[in-house]
# Entry
Amino acid sequence: MKIAILPGDGIGPEIVAEAMRVLGALDLKFETETALVGGAAYDAHGHPLPESTLKLARDADAILFGAVGDWKYDKLERPLRPEQAILGLRKQLGLFANFRPALCYPQLTHASSLKPELVAGLDILIIRELTGDIYFGQPRGRRTAVDGHFPGAEEAYDTMRYSRPEIERIAHVAFQAARKRSKKVTSVDKANVLETFQFWKDVVTEVHAQYPDVELQHMYVDNAAMQLVKAPKAFDVVFTGNMFGDILSDEAAMLTGSIGMLPSASLDKDNKGLYEPSHGSAPDIAGKGVANPLATILSVAMMLRYTLNQNAAADRIESAVQSVLSAGLRTADIWSAGTTQVGTRAMGDAVVAALAGTTKTITTKT
Ligand code: IPM
Ligand code: MG
# Structure
C-alpha cells in the first residue's frame, strides 16, 4: 500500500503531521511519500499541481491531503491559484464521489450553535458530486465591451452542466450508500429554475427505479438549507451536485459544533480515494499550533475503511478520538468551559496514546 501525502498550505502541514503520527501508531505496513501542493508548490515550482505531484497521487493507492489556499495568492491568474490543485486532482483522478459525513459527537453537543436537542445524535452523510457542474462547465470567462479581456470586464460567466452518465454514476453511489444506512436519500436540486437540475432530478428518478427499497425525496436547495438548520435529524443521505454540495456541506459541518471535526473522502469508480478534512487552510491560525487535527485524523480512518479495507484499524482511530473527547481535551475551536484546551500537537499525542489503549473492533459502521 502506498499513500501519497500532500500537506499543502496554511494549517495543512501541522494537521497532516498529526494524522501521520496516528497512521504510524497502527500496526500496519505501508509506504508514504510526501509532495508539495497548492501555494507551497507554486512557490517552489511555479505551479500549484506540478506533474511530479500529480504522478505521485496517480500512482498511490490513497492520498492524504491537508488543505490549500492563502489570501496572498488571490491576485494570481486562476490556473495558478492554490485551489486549482485540489480541483485538478479531483478531475484528473476521476474522484467524482465525495462523502462528507456530519456527525455530532455526544461530547460536543453543546459546541453546536443550534440547541442541543436539535443536534444530539445527528448523523447525516452528504454525498456531493465532485467533478462536474458549474465548477467544471465550459465556457467560462470574462468579456469586456472592447476586446474580450479584463481588466475592465463588463461581464463574466460560468456554465452549469451535467451529463447523463455523470448523474447516473453518482446516483448509484448515493443509493448504495443509503442501503448501508437508513435507506433514505434526499436529492437536492433547483429544478424550479435551472434546466441542469431539472435534468438531475429526472435522471435521479430514473436510477431510483433500480432501488425500490430506498426512499427518495427531492428537495430544492433553498429549502434544504433551511431544513438543515430547522430539523437536521430529518435527513439521512443528502445527495447533490458540486456547487450545492460545497455550500450545504459547510452548513452541515457547522451543525456538529466545528468544521474542525469533519473528515471527507473523494472516491473514484474503484474506491481509490483522496482523503481530506472538510475545512480549509485557515491561514489566520497557521503555524500557531492551535488547529484541530481531528478532521484529518478521522480522514485517515475513512481512508482505512473505504480504500485500504482495514475496518478494524478505522474503528480503533474513531474510538481513540471518542475517548480523547470524553477525557475533556479540546482544541480552541471546540473548547467550552469545563474542558481542557490543548494545541494541535497535544491533541495528536492524546489520540496516539488513546490508540495504544484501544482494542480491535469496538463498533462497526459503514
Ligand atoms: C471544498 C473547498 C473547495 C471546493 C475549494 C478549496 C476549491 O471549498 O472542498 O469544499 O470548493 O470544492
Ligand atoms: Mg467548500
User: Anything to note?
Assistant: Residues 1-96+268-366 form a domain with the Isopropylmalate Dehydrogenase fold (CATH 3.40.718.10).
